[in-house]
Amino acid sequence: MSRDDRLRRGIVALCSVQLLVALEFSIANVALPDISQDFHVGAQSLQWVLSGYALAYGAVLLCGGRFADAYGPRRLLLCGLAAFTVASMTAAATPTFGLLVALRVAQGAAAAFATPAALALITSLTSGHRRLVALSWWGAGGSLGFALGAALGGVITDVAGWRAVFWTCAVLSAASALMALWWVPEHRPRVSARPDAMGAVLLAACAAAGIMALSLVPAALSRPGTLAACLLLSASSAIALRMRQKSQEMPVLPRGFLTRRPILHANIAGAWAAAAGGSMVYFVTTFMQTVLGWPELTAGLMLLPDAAAAAFGARTARPLYGRLGTVRSCCVGLAGIAAGMVVLTGTPMGGVPAVVCILVGTCLTGYGLVLVAVITAVAAAARLDPDEHGVSGGLLVTTQQLGVAGGLALLLVVGEFTTGAPLSKTGIRACLLAGGALAVAGCAVVAAMGRSTAKQHPQDSPAR
Length: 464
Description:
The chain is mainly α. The chain has helices spanning 3-39, 43-46, 48-71, 73-92, 97-125, 128-160, 163-183, 197-216, 224-245, 261-277, 280-291, 296-301, 304-345, 352-380, 389-419, 425-456. The two termini are 39 Å apart.
């Protein structure tokens, strides 16, 4: 096997990690009713099957990236996939609901170690045209995994029960680990220092409390004490982390890392796009199932064209980036998100027009989201030191996760304020329209950042 063939297969193996992590986000959704019936738990407890995974994933991502830089991304990737496989197998055979939630947290933490390690390998093993192509595949893998999870979850649950969902994830994780073991070359760390373990704990606590606080914003009036406690924990952890960073040889976040304009602007653009359109699937799925009365499998299948549009967005990222540069390409993606969210606000009550509006709206939004994700990943990796690819990938995915959580909270607040029922027919439309407006504002912000960089630091200008 030639070096190029091995590299291509290695990129496929790394992109399968992104597909797996995204699939795990959505595949468990469809199994929730069966899990509730099996363990006799209510909706309040049941939501932790999803929240436990998402919370652990968002909290540990940046730590996973820094550990990848310190111990080697390939080693951390294999360890993360092995832990994910074991957690999935154990979840499939768990006898109690509490253990299932704990294992979902373990799945999220394992995925948080594997994801930035895989992204670090892509950006460090490739450059130029190859890096852009590989990151395009990476973005397409995430969208395909999310759509496949929504569609396959219903089929697997109907045929073999909810436990088969976790067995499926275990098999896919083991397959990704084997492909990485065979095809991804060894990549040894170039630093002798070890990351700050206590700093990693403080960072995880800060991120977890921050994500939890964002999720509680729509219910701030009914749970003000919990919201205040989360905000206090997040702020105090951030202050303690900042003080600790000054004395560490290898801090969790490299000193001055966020002040670099390409990295800062890429993370802002990625988080803004995620805030504007990242919750689209949540609102559209709710609309299809509760307002239109479509079954779960039909709702899942309706999202498959979104994956195809996202793959197209990943495919067109390279020519757009080459012709337009970072700023204008991101604006194209944000415009696609805005157009898609506005189209979805016109979704009627039923019939063929509903299908058309949903297909067009989800495809436009999916296209824009992946286009921005690929472009920002390229921009963030443009000028990194050899020991910074892991932390850069972890930071980029973390800010996107925060964007999704913050965007969902903001849109739900808008729906509550304007209609009093954010998940009703009119409430969902108000939320989607607010997402479109947020994407339009994002175009202006990204353009302003590009002009500022071009004036003050021409050598860092992302625009062409």
